[in-house]
Specification:
Strand content: 15-25%
Largest sheet: 7 strands, mixed
Structural class: alpha/beta
Length: 227
């Protein structure tokens, strides 16, 4: 992203922190049962996912990488005061970590930025421990029409971000095909649904049910174990 786009994205992320960040981190921690260990956030942007993970427990060491120096600058600002975080300017295609370094690797809403999906996933899996989890979330290119229409025409920075990110996104089938090429079989790839339990839980947190449902419908998640 350009600097002005990153600023718009940061503002939007801060405004939607509860709806975008908290359910994502909740899902990762509930599924992986992680109580301590190392977490890597790929495409960390303004650092809000790192911030939420690090705030949950001082037993987590959370590292965020992004190719944009401006993003890393914003991330450091947003995580000021947290002692268990670290940020690096780094390329997903050449992660600066040894093999089997992380208990959990996450990539939230950044997969569509990677032109070489196979190479990006291979690197994420390389740095993941044998008993670790790779947790992906991204926009769907085949998202419901009513959601895509909200960004048409793409005549503002926000609408451009939404429209072109969606157009660049991968489908579930494309992701699954690439994982098969990497000999990863039977990954969990699905679109999340708002259950009555989640509706009740997040209503108490002040998260609007309709907005939460739309956010889920616009994305898919993939939970992957290394081979």
């Amino acid at each position: 992203m350009e600097e002005i786009e990153m600023r718009v994205f940061e503002d939007l992320s801060l405004q939607n922190y509860k709806r975008w960040i908290i359910p994502f981190v909740d899902e990762v921690l509930e599924y992986t049962k992680l109580k301590k260990g190392k977490i890597l956030d790929i495409g960390a942007g303004p650092g809000l996912v790192v911030k939420e993970f690090a705030s949950r427990s001082h037993h987590f060491e959370v590292i965020g990488i992004d190719i944009s120096p401006k993003a890393i600058q914003l991330a450091k600002k947003n995580c000021d005061g947290l002692g268990n975080v670290r940020f690096l300017v780094a390329d997903v295609y050449q992660l600066p970590f040894p093999e089997r370094s992380f208990d959990v690797v996450v990539c939230k809403d950044s997969l569509h930025h990677f032109d070489n999906l196979r190479k990006a996933l291979k690197e994420m899996l390389r740095v993941l421990k044998k008993d670790g989890f790779l947790y992906l979330q991204d926009l769907r290119r085949d998202l419901p029409k009513y959601l895509l229409e909200r960004s048409v025409p793409p005549d503002t920075i926000l609408k451009k971000l939404q429209f072109y990110s969606t157009r660049a996104a991968y489908t579930k089938q494309e992701l699954e095909k690439t994982l098969r090429e990497l000999h990863i079989h039977n990954p969990q790839i699905r679109t999340r649904k708002v259950t009555d339990q989640l509706k009740k839980k997040y209503k108490e947190s002040g998260i609007d049910f309709v907005q939460l449902k739309e956010g889920f419908q616009a994305r898919y998640i993939a939970i992957i174990k290394p081979k």
